[in-house]
Structure formats: C-alpha cells, structure tokens
Design brief:
Shape: elongated
Helix content: 40-55%
Number of helices: 11
Radius of gyration: 20 Å
CATH topology: Rossmann fold
Distance between the termini: 13 Å
C-alpha cells in the first residue's frame, strides 16, 4: 500500500542531511498530496521539525500518526456486543464496493462462530442480488432477496423478522449505491432505518459507510452528507491497495472522530482487514 508516499518520503529524508525549512515544506506537500489533510499534517510536521536525524524524524512521524489514528481504533474497541440479533446496515455511493465488502464481513462473522444472514437490499442494480447470492453460496451464508425493483425497506423488514425468528446473531443488509447528492435516495435509506426500528428500537445497531479509498477528498464530502442525512456509526474504506490517496484516513478521523471498522486492500476474501492504527501506519511507512 501507499508506495507513493513511502517512496517520496524516503527520497526526501535520504537526500536531506538535516530537516531545514525546505525539507519540512517538501514533507508537508507530500502529506497533503496524499490527502492526509491540513490538521493532521500540521500535527505531524510539528513533531518532526526539531528532530536531528532521518531515524528520529521517521520515529516521531510514526508515533504521531498512530496517536491520530488511535482515536478511530479506540472508539471501535469500546463498542459492546449486542444481545440477540445485531443488525448492520451498509451504505455508500455507487462503486464503493458495498456488496463485496458485506460478503467479506459475513465471512469474517461466520468464521468467528456467529450465525450470519445477508439481505440483498440493493434492488435496483441489475444482478446485485445474484452477486450477493453467489457470495452467500460460496461462503455458506443465507441470503434474503426480493424481486428486482422491489421495495428495499420491505425487504429489510422481512429479513430482520426472519433473523429474529431464527435467532441469527448478525444480519448484514446491503443497500443500493447512491450519490450523496440524491436526496430522494437518501430519504429511502432513512426509511429503511425507521422500518428496522419497528421490531427493535435499537436497530440498526451499526450503519457503516463504505468509502472508495481512491476518491481522496471526495470521501470527506460524502461522509459529511451521510452523517447529516441518515447518521452513521462507522466507516469502511475500500480499494486502498496501490492508491496514493490512503492518507485520507487521517483527515476522516480528525474531522469526524468516527471509528474505522475495516479497510480493504485487495479482492481476495481475506483482504478486508479490521482496522488498527499500528498496522495501518506500519503499512503506510513500510520500507522507511
């Protein structure tokens, strides 16, 4: 991951005997170009500007990056497990990778010994239900579907009802992708959340926003609108393998103080990783 930032930081620090103003400005520009964001970049630069060697600079940078991202990790780890059926709703814009992500989460839940069910709430995209059913068959997880162009709120209600009857531990509900500017479709998500609350006032217990890590700063505006329109409890960031925009995680954490539940670093079933600050920063600075 993140070879752009690693390579250029390495070049800058190797060619610089001491961190003078020009070197600090170069590092600042690299962080901003990687979408780390102004606030986080300022904090990182403040920590390294008085260091006296490349090794000290890298150590200080690593420590500050972990401190920033630990906000997301700590919130995530403080969550308590729900009794009964836990409902997790996945939302996001078109192409963010929700259907693939929800399938990978289902596999992880099943591997933890939790009875898991999927609901194909994307009733608008052609073959979305078939895609989820294919995943469900391959990982051995039941998938609840409805007819194409069916009402996603009704599907969510029925899936929740069945999950409660069958004492399922985890119900994961997929939704149709929508631009964060489409107010009618955002209202539909709000309706799904209201319907789920009819059988359990605390449902959905999680509303996870899936963001495409390659979109950089667009992820910030998407998150802001989804928070305002429906409320979210956590974030999943996909497609971080090979992108130069992985620094946006820092900006997301600094701005919204939301937990990062998972990061996606590839296509394979095991490429969705539970987020930890230590591992993320190690990957970011790998080779330095």
């Amino acid at each position: 991951m993140f070879k752009f930032l690693t390579k250029h930081l390495s070049d800058t620090l190797t060619l610089t005997k001491n961190l003078d103003a020009a070197a600090l400005e170069e590092i600042e520009n690299l962080l901003l170009a990687s979408d780390v964001g102004f606030s986080a970049t300022e904090r990182i630069i403040a920590k390294i500007k008085n260091t006296e060697s490349k090794d000290q600079a890298i150590q200080a940078m690593r420590a500050e990056m972990i401190r920033i991202l630990a906000q997301a990790e700590d919130i995530s780890n403080s969550q308590t497990e729900e009794n009964g059926t836990k409902v997790i709703l996945l939302v996001g814009v078109n192409g963010a990778g929700k259907t693939t992500t929800i399938s990978k989460i289902a596999l992880q839940m099943k591997n933890k010994g939790l009875a898991t069910m999927l609901a194909a709430g994307d009733t608008f995209r052609a073959a979305a239900a078939e895609q989820l059913e294919s995943w469900g068959t391959s990982i051995g997880v039941q998938v609840i579907t409805t007819k194409e162009r069916g009402d996603p709120a009704s599907l969510a209600y029925e899936a929740h009802n069945r999950a409660l009857r069958e004492k399922v531990d985890i119900l994961l509900i997929d939704t149709a992708g929508r631009l964060h500017t489409q107010s009618d479709l955002m209202a539909e998500l709000a309706k799904i959340k209201r319907v789920l609350g009819k059988q359990d006032v605390s449902a959905p217990h999680e509303t996870l926003l899936v963001l495409d890590g390659t979109t950089g700063q667009n992820a910030i505006s998407q998150t802001q609108v989804f928070i305002e329109k429906i409320g979210i409890s956590g974030i999943v960031i996909t497609k971080l393998d090979g992108t130069a925009k992985g620094g946006v995680v820092f900006d997301l954490v600094e701005r919204f103080k939301l937990p990062i539940r998972y990061i996606g670093v590839g296509e394979s079933p095991d490429s969705l990783l539970e987020f930890t600050a230590q591992h993320y920063v190690s990957a970011l600075l790998e080779g330095l």
